[in-house]
Amino acid sequence: MSDTWQECMDHCVEVTKTAGKMIRDALQKDIAIMQKSSPVDLVTETDQKVEQLIISSIKEKYPTHSFIGEESVAAGSTSVLTDNPTWIIDPIDGTTNFVHRFPFVSVSIGFTVKKEIEFGIVYSCIEDKMYTARKGKGAFCNGVPIKVSGQEDISKSLVLTEMGFKSDPEQFKTMLGNIRTILSIPVHGIRSPGSAAVNMCLVACGAADAYYHMGIHCWDMAGGAAVVTEAGGVIIDISGGPFDLMSRRLIVASSRAIAERLVKEITEFDVGRDDTEHK
Q1: Which of 151-155, 253-257, 274-278 is the least confident region?
Q2: Which residues are catalytically annotated?
Q3: Res. 2: pLDDT tops 60
Q4: Which of 161, 183, 180, 164 is nearest to 172 (CA)?
């Protein structure tokens, strides 16, 4: 079936390029902003239009495949992963960046077969960087092979995470406490580019050494997970167990040593699962 999945990937790259152009064009116009679950959970007409473009193009070619899309789930669709070939789509990963025209905005698509990630594509469309990875075939940025830094000393590492308002005061306190703990190791610094998929690709290409997050979704992680794995990176659960695409949490690192050190430093909080709750 390998040729079949390569055809899927090639089609996906072309669709992603079109989606990226749609996003860049939209940045030249007024952006209509809507609110989802909270004043800081934003969506735009462009998010919805890009997802419609991607799904309709893929459905036309692969009508039997399944889809999990961020905006589809927001509109009430389920996000349960099955064995069927499944496209996991984030039309704009970094919507808040898009709204502010902050330059880390990506289209992220992961493709799973029998619940395993077969390939991933992340297009950081303002930077015009197309990250691609196919299981067992390596990771690339604009066609050039990429690999993680290989750094094993956390005190020499640049760490990525995301910071934002949390309505639960205990979660808010824990999130800020984790940042303080990691900075106190000490590490070289913490950065928050604002797009989970881009964060994973920055680790994949060696520009950062680790990334951790609790509270993201499968569509934030699927494309980047393929890229960082194929670039030689390590992905595990916050608890130190195996990475679970539906768990809403992960640690990505350039080496197992750094990943395992972060497990020891990070305090967990409950974020639920994508396959048991829809919000």
Answers
A1: 274-278
A2: 70, 90, 92-93, 95, 220
A3: no
A4: 164
